[in-house]
From TrEMBL:
Protein known as: Pentapeptide repeat-containing protein
SUPFAM superfamilies for this protein: lambda repressor-like DNA-binding domains, Pentapeptide repeat-like
Residues annotated as domain HTH cro/C1-type: 15-71
CDD domains given in the database record: HTH_XRE (cd00093)
Pfam families: Pentapeptide (PF00805)
Molecular-function GO term, any one: DNA binding
InterPro entries: 5peptide_repeat (IPR001646), Cro/C1-type_HTH (IPR001387), Lambda_DNA-bd_dom_sf (IPR010982), Pentapeptide-BTB/POZ_domain (IPR051082)
Disordered, as annotated region: 428-452
Amino acid sequence: MDLQSKEKNKFPRLIKEIRSRRKLTQIALGKLLSPPVTQQSVTQWEHNKYVPDRKYWPQLAELAEMDLGEFYEYIENGLTSKPSSPLEEILDKIKSLDPKELEVVTQATAERWVSLGDVSYTANKQHLALLKRGADVWNRWRQENPAIKPVLSGIDLNLEGCIDLSDYNLEKADLQGVSGNEIKFSRAKLNWADLSGAVLRLANFENATMIGTKLLNAELTEAHFHSTHLQGADLSQANLERATLIATHLMQTNLSGANLTQADLRYSVMSETNLEKAILKNCLVYGTAVWRVRLDQAKESELDTSPRTPTQLEEGIFSDSLELAHILDSISTKPQLYEKLKQRIKDEEQAIEYAQSLVENYGEDQFNGSRIYIAPEGNYHILSSLGDLVVTAPDSSYSLISRDRKGKISSNLRPGDVNNLKALLEFKTKPKASSQPEQKKRNSRPYTGSKG
């Protein structure tokens, strides 16, 4: 029998064996090859109608986990010339077990793992091979196998030649402890991926989506995160020294204990961001939006509010508080804004002072331990309870001003409210004229300010 006849006899079984072992459809197998082949071609190979072109033989050998010598020996002598591995024999036996026998094997396997203790992560060879075939092949495989979680932990991306992972779908991938310098992740999808302990200096994550991504203890010195979406990501204890985070979304991001020394945070958005115990030193913070961030025990110093653009290099105003940095820059460039801020603070302090005096001296005790003051004609209601103070008005859908027991003030004062509260207090403290009928005093308007 000539070699061509042997090839036609051996390839159908080989192709089916590869697909069965790797759980691939005919379409998926065809797309794995380079250049790709159609499902029809794979079907013809399996039905002994055609033999794969020889340019595909090295690829088929790799998928069959053979070197080229073993592959040609197989074509010559058949699969029986390559003895089954002990693992393959075990797997074949497991497939034939009934449920009760399988339960015994499962229990024994679990006990074996316990006896081994902690086992370090290793990358899945098949997943790594697919990663090396480029974004198109990888993303098609991810799309066709959405339930599979890629395991690529511990690999050296430089050593494996995977230096450009731009546009890759790496969602939910296990990338713990990966390493590499100047690796590109531009526009990559890394939502809910785990890169804990990764060492990725000078990595480029520009425009990547990294919602919920884990980067605990990651080494990200001089990494580039321009316009990256990091909402809900965990970068606790990460080293982001000299990292670029311009226009980065950091809403609800965990940066507790992170080192952000000399990081560029310009135009980034921080909302409910956790920066507890973080190091914020010599950072660029011009245009950074800060809303309800947590900064307990954070080390803040020399935060630069200047734009630092090529055409505008004037010295900025430095601050030792991230929350105050943008306010200080605004009021330094707009004196009228500073005056408005001063007036607002003064109005709030006076309103609280007048309201406190009215409710304490002229209010009435309530059954629940609180105290309430209602102005003549009901224009203002002032409630004091367990250290909280709230001023409301029937014609307003929200409180005008409130102060909680911790001293936090929330203000929605309208023009005239402060003067009205002052007039009420002056009216109350004014001596009563004995000749004036009591009923007339109660019905008269006691103050001249706006009703709001």
